[in-house]
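Reagents: none. Just compute today. Pyridoxal phosphate-dependent enzyme.
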Amino acid sequence: MFNFLIQFIREQYRTDDFIPLHAPKFIGNERDYVLATIESSFVSSVGAYVDKFEQEMAAYTGSPSAVVTVNGTSALHMALILAGVSQGDYVLTQPLTFVATCNAISYCKAEPIFLDVDRRNLGLSPQAVDAWLDEFAFIDEAGLCRHRADNRIIRACVPMHTFGHPADIDGLLDVSERWHVPIIEDAAESLGSLYKGRHTGTFGKIGVLSFNGNKIITTGGGGMILADKELGIRAKYLTTTAKKPHPYEFYHDETGFNYRMPNINAALGCAQLEQLDSFIENKRLLAKNYAALLANTSLQFISEPEGCRSNYWLNAVICENQQQRDELLKATNEAGL
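Predicted 3D structure written out:
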């Protein structure tokens, strides 16, 4: 049934070997930059490539500040802390996401509330969020959004730009403003994706990126916090152990986190960022080919939302039913895809 798709994928990659969801490519300055960190001896949490990567990512995304972390989960955790999420709070999010999203919420001893996604973009549905809040929430005299049943604060909303497709940001921001629930964008999969010409992760209170080995660019493992200048300074302080600046004394005035990205990883990121545009171009070409192949089939290809540019990190289809989904997964996995 799916032989046509399996054959197409094999033709795209020109191999009979196992084909993963995504594989990193190191075809630029990665070796030179990593070697430079080794020769400098600054391979750990301090070094020129950390600063360079943050500056270049801020420029690329248009964010006032960009703070690197050791992985995307740590960036999500810190974003929630910066948004004031604490024990007993609720955080609205979507079930179609990586487990890191709700893990980070749990780290804060808060509770995730899972709401439905929009079939058009696979991101959190503004209509679903608004309907849930209308039924279960109210705004108190202090302007805080609370749950009617137990009076607990609904502190944040974490939509995901799923597979690189921008969520309905305008709709989510409208709900956020009316209900006083700040948006934290989980843009882990959407580096290079644009919503109405603006980079994902720069619309909400805070945005989060990931540079895991399976992302569109990688630092081996890494994450990033996108925020305004004030929150960026705060994020940098807390993710680098909350240490007061001093030539030799070690004084920490609050609980901090050792979420620092090593310089050697940042070096890899700088080299990868230089190639991001070509990576996206290749991803988009592959998506175009998939869309053409599947146009007259029972598999509904997920295309970028209107007015957006998706990085097409991963390509996805909606199946007719669960049986077709299971058959597709079985056939492709047995074929080494």
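Residues 3-21+276-334 form one domain.
Action item: order primers for follow-up constructs.
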